[in-house]
Write a structure and sequence with these properties.
mainly alpha; Cytochrome Bc1 Complex, Chain D, domain 2
């Protein structure tokens, strides 16, 4: 019993001695860059003082702006768009977008239904479920938005608009319409354009048929 008491006393003494001086320094680390992450200043402005004369980063100052590398394509964004947003007052790329065709093949029934769903969620509030520009925000002029949005079906301007130009507008925004690049993937944007064009075709086709029939008479 006496031996047990001595052992307990010695063990307790060693424990107290070990805890009396807490060591904050872990000592030498073999590969510190792998053990500890380098802290970045998010959104820090680029400053030449952060770099040495040969533009190499120094050990204690790092430039980091949280932006992806140029040309990076996000997961699920398999179809890159080759045109950048025009500078204010410039329409060069907007006009060039006319030559870009829809890279997605024609949609099957399930895909068309999904495209319609995405349209109603993201576009219908302005352009209306019937694509006539009479969505809940306009509501025959009694809604909170005073200007009528574009009439996608029933206006020759938009019925004749090339798909690439539509994509440009959805991606970067146009006039009072903002960008939907953060809400819709590229595939979803192109699919919605397929849906819009399918609705436009249904209104254009009868007119062509009638004129053709008249010409035969």
């Amino acid at each position: 019993m006496k031996k047990i008491s001595v052992i307990v006393f010695i063990t307790s003494a060693i424990g107290l001695a070990a805890c009396s001086d807490i060591r904050r320094d872990p000592g030498s680390v073999y590969m510190p860059d792998m053990a500890y992450s380098r802290a970045y200043e998010t959104y820090a402005a680029r400053d030449s003082s952060l770099f040495s004369t040969d533009e190499k980063r120094t050990d204690d100052k790092i430039f980091y702006n949280n932006m992806p590398v140029a040309g990076t394509i996000a997961r699920g964004e398999e179809i890159p768009f080759p045109l950048k947003k025009d500078a204010p007052g410039d329409t060069t790329n907007y006009i060039a977008a006319k030559a870009i065709t829809n890279p997605l093949p024609p949609l099957d029934d399930a895909q068309m239904k999904e495209a319609e769903r995405q349209y109603l969620i993201n576009c219908g509030i302005c352009h209306g479920p019937k694509l006539n520009g009479n969505g809940p925000l306009y509501k025959d002029g009694s809604g909170p938005y005073p200007a009528k949005p574009a009439t996608l079906v029933g206006d020759v301007k938009y019925e004749s608009m090339p798909e690439g130009q539509m994509f440009y507008s959805i991606t970067y925004g146009k006039n009072l319409m903002g960008s939907y690049a953060s809400q819709l993937t590229r595939d979803q944007r192109w699919a919605i354009i397929h849906y819009i064009k399918s609705k436009q075709a249904k209104t254009v086709a009868p007119a062509v048929t009638d004129s053709t029939a008249s010409a035969k008479k």
